[in-house]
Design goal:
The structure is a single chain. By secondary structure, the chain is an alpha+beta fold. The two termini are about 45 Å apart. Strand 10 and strand 11 form a beta hairpin. Helix 14 crosses helix 15 and helix 22 crosses helix 26. The protein contains 28 helices and 16 strands. It folds into 5 domains: about 90 residues, Zinc finger, CHC2-typedomain (DNA Primase, Chain A, Alpha-Beta Complex); about 140 residues, DNA primase, catalytic core, N-terminal domain (DNA primase DNAg catalytic core, N-terminal domain); about 110 residues, Dna Topoisomerase Vi A Subunit, Chain: A, domain 2 (3-Layer(aba) Sandwich); about 90 residues, no CATH class; about 150 residues, DNAb Helicase, Chain A. It binds zinc ion. Zinc ion (ZN) binds next to loops. The site of zinc ion has 8 residues, from loops.
Length: about 650
C-alpha cells in the first residue's frame, strides 16, 4: 500500500509521541523532556528521553531514536502499513485508498474475494462444530473422549467433525450462496472425475486453522478410523499458506510467559493447553519456515522446542533450530524421557512434571552435542574420532571466542575427551575457514587463539597476514594490502563526516524553520551525498516553498533505522547553537567545499584513466573550473 507524504504526515502529527510511548513506557517529566526506562535495552536508571516539541525519542545509553511511527514499528514489530493503520485508528483518521484507479479496482476485487473466503470458512467451521454435536458425530466424540480432549478444549479450538458423506458441506455452502468454483478455489471441495465436485473432508476430526487475528482460513482433518492419510489439510490457496501461519498463535500471542513452546502438531498443542500452557504454537505439518520464525519473532525472542522424541521429531527439530537460530532466537530444546510425545507425557505425568522439563531444557549447542554423542557412541567403531570431528564442526561455527571456550571446557569435562586435541582441531578448522574466500571475518579469532597457544612467539609475518584480512590471499604484497585498508578507513570516516553534516543541517532546519531562506539559496538537494538525506531535503524544501512548517519527527521517516538513530542523536545532543544562522551557514559552506573537493578529485582521477576516450576527457575538463570555482567560493566565504 502506498501512502502520500501528506497522509503519512497527517497520521504522524495526529498521534502525540508522548501519549503513544507512555502507554508502554512509564514517563516522567524532567525539564521540557520526558524520561523513562528504555524499551530497547535493559537498564535500571532512565536514559530514554521523549521530546514533545520535536516529537522524537532518543536513548542516551543505546542511542536508539526515531519518531512515533518508528517507535511502534520497533516495539510492536509491525510493518509500515500496519503501523499506519494502527495510528490512523488511534486518531480516528480514515486512511484513503490509493489514487491509482486500476490498483484500486484490483484491490477492491481482492478484498471482496478475501471477504467471501473468510465468510465461507466461518460458515464451514460452524457447520463442522454443529456436526460434532449431532447424532452422526458420535464416533468423533468417542474418539475425543479416548484422547482426553475436554469440552472446554473443543470450544477453545473450535474443533469439529466432517460427516461421512460426499457432499454434506458442499450442499450446505451452496445453500449459503457459495458457488462450486468458490468452494473449489477455497480448497473445501475437490473436482470430480466427470462433472461436479465433492467434500474434501469426510469423516474426520476438524481442527480450524486461524490466522493471528483469529480468522479461520484453513482446516486440518484427522482420520477417526484407519483411513489414509492420517492427517489431511486444506491446500494452499490465494489466502492461505501453511508456511506463513503458526497454529495456536492467535491464542498464544497474549500469553504472559516470556517464551513460546513450539510443538509438532495440533494434538500436542491442545493437550498442553488443557494443562494450562497458553504459550504454545505448532508449525502446520512442515518443518519450521523462515516466515514462521519471523512471525513468531514479533512476540518473543525466546523459544523452547518440544518435538516428539522419535527420530523424525529429532530431525525436524534440528532443521527448525537452525532457522530459529538464524533469526536470532534464544533456542532451547526440551527432551521428553522414554521417547514420548508431549501429549502422552503430560497425560501420564501432569503439568508439574512438564514444567520441570521446561526448566531443564538444554541450550541449542548442548542439545546438538548430546544428539551427536547419541548417534556416535563411544563404543561404536571410531566413535570418539567421529564424535570429536562433529564437535569441532559445530564449535568452529561459534563466532564468539569466550562462548567457544565455555563450550570446550564443558565438553571436555562432560565427555572425557582431551582438551588439547579439541583445541588443536578447532584451530585447524578455523584456519581453513579463514583461508576460504568470503570467510575473512573468522580471521581475528584465529589470530588470538594462535597467540594464546604459542605464547609470545607468534610469527610476526603471520600476525600481519591474519589481521589485514583483505590482504590475505592476494599476491599484491603486504604493503599494498595495508595501504588499501587505511585508504578504505579514511574513506569510511569521511563518509561518516558527510552524513553527520547532512543530518546536522536537516536537524537544525527542522528545529528552526526560519532558516529556509539560507538553505534554499545555498544548498541544492543534489549537494547531499546521502540519498535519504537528499529526499528529506527535497521534501522539506517543497513544503517550505508552500509556506508550511516542517518538524524533526516528520523528517525521521526518510531515514533507515540506523540513520534515524543518528538523526535523533544530533537533534538531542548536537543542535543547540548560540546562533542558528551562523551555524547553518558554516555547515553549508563545509558541505559545499567537500562536495567540490570530491568532484574535483574525481575528475582528476578520471583524467588519469588511460582507457578514457578523448571526447569523454574533454567533457570532464570543462567541468573542472566549476568545481574549482565552487571550492574557492566556499573557501573565501570563511574557514573550511
Ligand atoms: Zn536504550
Amino acid at each position: 500500500m502506498y501512502y502520500s507524504d501528506q497522509v503519512i504526515e497527517d497520521v504522524r502529527s495526529a498521534n502525540n509521541i508522548v501519549d503513544v510511548i507512555s502507554s508502554r513506557v512509564q514517563l516522567q517529566k524532567k525539564g521540557k523532556n520526558f524520561f523513562g526506562l528504555c524499551p530497547f535495552h535493559h537498564e535500571k536508571t532512565p536514559s530514554f528521553s521523549v521530546d514533545p516539541d520535536r516529537q522524537i525519542y532518543y536513548c542516551f545509553s543505546c542511542n536508539k531514536g526515531g519518531n512515533v511511527i518508528g517507535f511502534l514499528m520497533e516495539t510492536e514489530k509491525l510493518s509500515f502499513p500496519e503501523t499506519m493503520q494502527r495510528l490512523a485508528d488511534r486518531a480516528h483518521i480514515l486512511l484513503p485508498e490509493s489514487s491509482d484507479p486500476v490498483y484500486n479496482k484490483q484491490l477492491a476485487r481482492s478484498k471482496e474475494l478475501q471477504k467471501r473466503y473468510f465468510e465461507m470458512y466461518t460458515h464451514a467451521a460452524s457447520f463442522f462444530s454443529q456436526a460434532l454435536l449431532s447424532d452422526n458425530g458420535k464416533a468423533a466424540r468417542d474418539y475425543m473422549q479416548k484422547r482426553s480432549i475436554r469440552n472446554d478444549m473443543v470450544r477453545r479450538f473450535g474443533l469439529g467433525y466432517s460427516y461421512n458423506s460426499w457432499d454434506a458441506l458442499c450442499q450446505f455452502l451452496e445453500s449459503k450462496g457459495f458457488k462450486a468454483d468458490e468452494q473449489l478455489a477455497a480448497g473445501l471441495a475437490i473436482k470430480g472425475k466427470n462433472e461436479g465436485h465433492y467434500d474434501r473432508f469426510r469423516h474426520r476430526i476438524i481442527y480450524p486453522i486461524q490466522d493471528v487475528s483469529g480468522r479461520v482460513l484453513a482446516f486440518g482433518g484427522r482420520a477417526i478410523d484407519d483411513s489414509t492419510p492420517k492427517y489431511l489439510n486444506s491446500p494452499e490457496t490465494q489466502f492461505y499458506s501453511k508456511g506463513k501461519n503458526l497454529y495456536g498463535l492467535n491464542l498464544a500471542k497474549s500469553t504472559k510467559e516470556k517464551f513460546m513452546l513450539i510443538v509438532e502438531g495440533y494434538m500436542d498443542l491442545i493437550a498442553l493447553s488443557a494443562y494450562g500452557f497458553d504459550n504454545v504454537v505448532a508449525p502446520l505439518g512442515t518443518a519450521l519456515t523462515d516466515m514462521q520464525a519471523k512471525l513468531l519473532k514479533r512476540y518473543t525472542d525466546d523459544v523452547i522446542i518440544a518435538f516428539d522424541a522419535d527420530a523424525a521429531g529429532q530431525a525436524a527439530a534440528l532443521r527448525g533450530l537452525d532457522i530459529l537460530e538464524g533469526q536470532g532466537f534464544r533456542v532451547r530444546v526440551l527432551s521428553i524421557p522414554d521417547g514420548k510425545d508431549p501429549d502422552d507425557f503430560i497425560g501420564a505425568k501432569g503439568a508439574p512434571a512438564f514444567r520441570n522439563l521446561i526448566a531443564e531444557a538444554a541450550p541449542l549447542m548442548d542439545y546438538k552435542i548430546a544428539s551427536l554423542r547419541k548417534s556416535v557412541p563411544a563404543d561404536a567403531p571410531d566413535g570418539d574420532v567421529r564424535f570429536l570431528k562433529g564437535v569441532v564442526q559445530l564449535l568452529a561455527r561459534v563466532k564468539d571466542e569466550v562462548e567457544r571456550d565455555v563450550y570446550i571446557n564443558r565438553i571436555v569435562s562432560q565427555y572425557h575427551i582431551y582438551e588439547n586435541s579439541v583445541r588443536a582441531e578447532i584451530d585447524k578448522a578455523l584456519r581453513r575457514d579463514s583461508r576460504a574466500p568470503g570467510r575473512a571475518a573468522a580471521a581475528p579469532g584465529v589470530n588470538q587463539n594462535e597467540r594464546k597457544n604459542s605464547g609470545n612467539n607468534a610469527k610476526p609475518s603471520e600476525g600481519i597476514k591474519q589481521s589485514t584480512g583483505a590482504g590475505a590471499g592476494t599476491n599484491a604484497g603486504a604493503g599494498t594490502g595495508t595501504n588499501a585498508g587505511a585508504g578504505a578507513r579514511r574513506g569510511a570516516s569521511r563518509a561518516m563526516a558527510y552524513r553527520a553534516a547532512e543530518l546536522f543541517i536537516l536537524a537544525l532546519l527542522s528545529t528552526d524553520n526560519t532558516l529556509w531562506d539560507i538553505v534554499a539559496e545555498k544548498l541544492p538537494p543534489e549537494y547531499m551525498e546521502y540519498e535519504n538525506a537528499r529526499h528529506a531535503l527535497t521534501y522539506a524544501c517543497d513544503k517550505a516553498s508552500q509556506g508550511r512548517q516542517v518538524s524533526p519527527g516528520e523528517l525521521m521517516r526518510f531515514f533507515s533505522p540506523e540513520e534515524g538513530d543518528q538523526f535523533a542523536n544530533v537533534l538531542t545532543n548536537g543542535c543547540y547553537c548560540e546562533d542558528n544562522r551562523r551555524a547553518m551557514e558554516q555547515k553549508i559552506r563545509e558541505l559545499r567545499a567537500a562536495h567540490a573537493k570530491r568532484h574535483f578529485r574525481g575528475a582528476i582521477a578520471a583524467l588519469e584513466n588511460e582507457g578514457l576516450s578523448e571526447a569523454e576527457k574533454a567533457r570532464i575538463k570543462t567541468q573542472i573550473p566549476d568545481h574549482m570555482k565552487m571550492f574557492d567560493t566556499a573557501k573565501t566565504m570563511g574557514r573550511i
